[in-house]
Amino acid sequence: MARKSGKSNKLFVLDTNVLLHDPTCLYRFQEHDIYLPMATLEELDHNKKGMSEVSRNARQASRFLDEIVSTCELDIADGAPLAERSHNAATGRLILQTHAITSDAMAVLPHSKVDNQILGVVNYLKGQQPDRQVILVSKDINMRIKARALGIQAEDYFNDKVLEDTDLLYTGVRELPPDFWETHGKGMESWQKDGRSYYKVTGPLSNSMLVNEFVYQEGDRPLHAMVTDIAGKTAVLATVKDYSHHKNAVWGITARNREQNFALNVLMDPQIDFVTLLGQAGTGKTLLTLAAGLTQTLESKIYSEIIMTRVTVPVGEDIGFLPGTEEEKMTPWMGALEDNLDVLNKTDDEAGEWGRAATQDLIRSRIKVKSLNFMRGRTFINKFLIIDEAQNLTPKQMKTLITRAGPGTKVVCLGNIAQIDTPYLTEGSSGLTYVVDRFKGWPHSGHITLARGERSRLADHAAGVL
C-alpha cells in the first residue's frame, strides 16, 4: 500500500473528469500525493478516441502518466515520484491502484457505476490511513455530494480558476474619490496634444492604477480620462474623446452612457490591438464593436475586412456534413449580427432605400462569418476580428484564437460571464475571465465592463425584476 506519511502531506484521489479537464493537474498538487483508482484509468481509456477537446486531453493525460510511470524504478505500489517530471513544482508521488479493493461504502451504492467504485476506493484509503487527510477531487457536483453523504472529504479542482470571486474581476473603470485633486494635484503638470488634455499627477492612488484604465469623476467639473502612463507614484491621465456627441458619431452610433463612451475610445484606438467587452444582454457590446469595425474598415481603411466568429454551443463540435458553405451553416448562429446590421443600416437617413440597399451589400461583402473549427493554423493580417459569446471558450481555446492575429489585426472579445452554456466552465475558469485578468495593464489592450442595458425600458425592467 502507499507509504505512510506525515499529517501535513495529503492524499488526493482524482476523478477522471479532473484529468479530462486539465491533463497537467498531475503536476499541480505541490508536496501532496496523488492516487489514481483503476476506474479512473478505465474511464480515461474510454474517452481517448475522437477529435474533441476531451479526447485530446485524455490522450495527453495518458502520455503524462506513461512518462511518470515508465521512469519509476521503485515498486509501483510505493508511488512514482513527480518531482523530476514537474521540475520540482510537484514533490509528491503518483500512486496507482494495484489490487482489488472492497469497502463498506459499496454496500450502500450500486457497484456497477464507475463513480461508486471510485468512492469505494476513497473510503477504503480513509480506513487504511486514518492519520492522513484523504480527499476526493472531482469536477462533478453530484459526485462530491455523494462523497459527503459517506463522510468523505471532497473538493472541486480549483487550479484552473483565474479568480475565486468574479466580483474581483478587473472592470477597466475606476471612480476617482472627491478629494482626488487635493491629494494628487500637488506639483501637477498639464498640457494639450492632438485635442486631448494630459495631466501628470502624483499620489497614493497612482500605484494601483493600470495603463489604459479609465477614470472618471462626476460633479461640477466632470472628468472622463484614461491612464496612459504609470511610473511609481506618478500617473499620466489623458481626457477621452466624447463619442456621445453627434459630431463624433461612429457609423451613425453615439455613446448612450459613460461606459459605452469608454468602449468606443478603445475600439477606435488603432494603438490598442486587443479589446475585451463584458456586459449583460443589451449593453451594446456587438453594436458598438460592429460600428467601430465598419468605420475603420470602410471609411478609414485601417483594416481590410471584419471577421466575425461565434462560439456555437456545443463548442467546437462539427458544423455538419449537409450541403452548404461554412457561412451558410453559421447563419443560424448569427442572428445577433443580422439584428445589429439592421440597426447600423438605418442610421443613414439621407441615403434613401436604394442607397441603404447598396450600403448593405457593401457591408456584407466586408464581413466574413467563420466557424471556430477552421481557425487552427490560420493567420489574419489587417483584419478586425470579433469573437462573440467568448465566455464559452476555455483558456486554451482563447489562446488558439488570439494567437491567430497577424500584423495590423485587432481582436475584440465580447461576452457575458453570467451566461456560460458549456459544462465544466464556470465564471472563474472561463477563457474570457482568463484573458481579462492576464491582459490588464498591457499598453496595447483595453477592457470595459458595460453596466447599463440600452435596449428598451421593457428589457431594462425585465433584467431587474425577473
Automatic annotation (TrEMBL):
CDD domains named in the record: PIN_VapC_PhoHL-ATPase
- May I ask which residue range the UniProt record assigns to the signal sequence? none
* A GO molecular function held by the record: ATP binding
Per UniProt, the keywords (alphabetical) are: ATP-binding, Nucleotide-binding
Q: Which one Pfam family would you cite for this protein? A: PIN_4
Name all PIN domain ranges: 10-145
Would you tell me the Gene Ontology cellular component terms? cytosol
* Keyword flag Nuclease: no
UniProt record similarity statement: Belongs to the PhoH family.
Protein's name in the database:
PhoH-like ATPase
